C-alpha cells in the first residue's frame, strides 16, 4: 500500500488488473487514462497480451502469476476480469491482502460464493465493488433523476429486457460451461437489466422470484459470433447454459418487476417503469381474491365469469392448468384446451 499523500495533495491510487480479455482491456484503458490512478501492474496467463498492453500503456509490472502480483506490486486496488468461477477466490485473496477490489460481473458463479466475498470485504474493512457500469450511463442517470423528482408519481411496475439476435459470447469456451460461468444469458447481460431496474426503483428488496430458462440455439452451435474476448475454443464442449431467460419478481412494497433479460442468440435493451398518480394499479399482495372478470368460451363467445382462486389472476403457480383463451394468452396455444404452464405464468391483461 502506498503512503498517505501530503495534506492537500492529490491521492494517486496504485492499481492492478487481473485478466486481459475484452473486459480486462477496458479496465486497463480506463486506469491508464485516469490521472488519479497509476496503473502499475497487470496479470494474465497469455504472455503476448502482457507484452501488448504492457507496452501500450507503459505498465512496469507484468505477471503471469496473479498471487505474485498482489504480493509484490504494492497495490491499493485490483480489478478482476477473469472467468466467473475465479472471481471469489481472487477477490477474497486480494481483500485479505488489504486491497480494495473491483470485480467484473457476474459477482460469482453462486450466491454462496458471492456472500463469501462480501464477508471477506467486511472482515478486511476494504471496498468490494461489482462492475455494473450500465447504471452509470447518461440516459439511466437522467431517468433516475426523473424518478427521484416524483413527477411520475408512485412506481408500481417495471419491465426490463435485453435481446441479442446474434451474440452468444465464447461458444465452446468457459463462457458456455455451467461450472465456470455460473449461467448463460441471465448471468451475462440479464443482470445488467436487473441492476438498472432495481437502481431506478430505489433498491427494493426482492421478496419472491419465479423464472424460466431455455437453451435453443447454443446447443445447435448457433447464435455465436459476437466478437468478444480471446478465450480458447475447445472441441466438443457441450453448451451447458441458457440462451434465453425470463423472470418475474415480487418486490418489497408490492411493486412487481417483469424481467426478460436474456435472448442471447445486434442487441436491443429496454428498461421501462410505470407510475401512477391516481388509484392503486396493482393487484393486492395479501392473496385477496380479485374480482371475477368475463372470459371467453373455446368458441369465442363471452361467458359468465367464474369464481377465481385466492391467487392473483396475474400469477399462477408452476404446474397449474391454465385455460388458453380465458387464463393465459401467452403461455398456451389458442386451441381452447388446457395446458400446463412450465413456470409462473405472467398475464398482464
Task: Please provide a written account of the structure.
This protein has 349 residues and is of the alpha/beta class. The protein folds into 3 domains: 13-131, NAD(P)-binding Rossmann-like Domain (Rossmann fold); 134-276, Dihydrodipicolinate Reductase, domain 2 (2-Layer Sandwich); 297-349, no CATH class. It is 25% helix and 25% strand. α4 packs parallel to α5. The longest helix is centred in the middle third of the chain and has 16 residues, at 185-200. The chain is globular, with a radius of gyration of 24 Å. Residues 264-349 have low confidence and may be disordered.
Second-tier CATH architecture of the largest domain: 2-Layer Sandwich
Q: CATH homologous superfamily of the largest domain?
A: Dihydrodipicolinate Reductase, domain 2
Order of strands in the sheet with most strands? 3-2-1-4-5-6
The SS-based structural class is alpha/beta
What can be said about the biggest beta sheet?
Answer: 6 strands, parallel
* Percent of residues in helices: 10-25%
CATH topology of the largest domain: Dihydrodipicolinate Reductase, domain 2
Q: What is the number of E strands?
A: 17
Whole-Å distance between the termini?
58 Å
How many domain modules? 3
Overall mean pLDDT score?
A: 76
